[in-house]
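Next comes a concrete protein, fold included:
___
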Amino acid sequence: MMTPQKNITPNNLAAICSGAISLPISGYIFFLKPTWWVFFVAIILIFIFCFYLIRYVVKQFIYRQIKLIYKLISQTKASKREEFYYKNLLPQKSIEEVRNDVQNWADQRKNEIEKLHENEAFRREFLQNLSHELKTPIFSIQGYVETLLSGALSNPDVNIKFLENTSKNIDRLVNLVDDLDEISKLESGELKLSLVNFTIQNLIKEVYDSLYLKAADKQITLTIKRGCELPLNVHADKEKIRQVLINLVDNAIKYGKSNGLIEAGFYVVEGKKILIEITDDGYGIAEEHRSRIFERFYRTDTARTRKVGGSGLGLSICKHIVEAHSQSIHVRSTVDVGSTFVFELPVSVKVG
């Protein structure tokens, strides 16, 4: 049983066809004139003539077909150099190889279309979430202002309270716009990092100090894990990493349990990086939400997260800042046990 040739070339095809033509014709000539030298000369001459004729015809046919295929794939008009490439190099490819190229192109287009559908779904969800985030404080401000203009402005029992609530909602809008501007700059690459050497433990202590009152309201303890007190120096944008740590610790406080614990851990990885962990013993994150919590405005528990406030952009900002340092951020979490956010930073570089 013959095995079919998968990588047959125009030369192979021409040789097979030439042999199939030259043998019976030469046999017929031998039948008319039974002389062996005439038979062999006829075979050779007919084979050579048919070989070059068939090869030329096949190559021209394949070239025209492949030229159309590759023009379709590239969607461009071929230059003279590309024309030479199509005509003199591509015919050396077998039909199977061309089929694989076309299949790879089709798979790539399919993946691009699927990605576009996913992006469109994310875009719709993002716009819906953004609309909700904007409408909530705007409607609140509108309600307070209308009430004040309707006569409550002269009522000392409510006017100050309404103005204070209006101010809080304006602050929420400003924070939302600032966070959107921050993400826009991070995604577009406009925001440049100012890399310096600093001690990561000192920075987390400053973050703990800034959030102490908020943690104290829920009797949450902020601490560094035992064994992680030894100073470790990293090379990063200090203020951006401060923003990451504030967002992570602030989230841990917001969604943590009363009388809970938030710990920061720091570990050297292969002498080149410092692994940073922010761990809490809060409510945790369900498995179906973990892969999406770094998306803009994504909420794991809509009612509770909107109740505690925030723009819904904090974790997305963390992700972009860490990625701007050529690193990645991950989360480990178990419901009713707690969560741990993990990212790495390069160790400090020596100056001079």
In short: The beta strands are 195-199, 221-224, 233-237, 261-269, 273-280, 329-334, 338-346. The chain has three domains: 10-93, 123-188, 195-346. The CA atoms of residues 106 and 225 lie 52 Å apart. The mean pLDDT is 79.
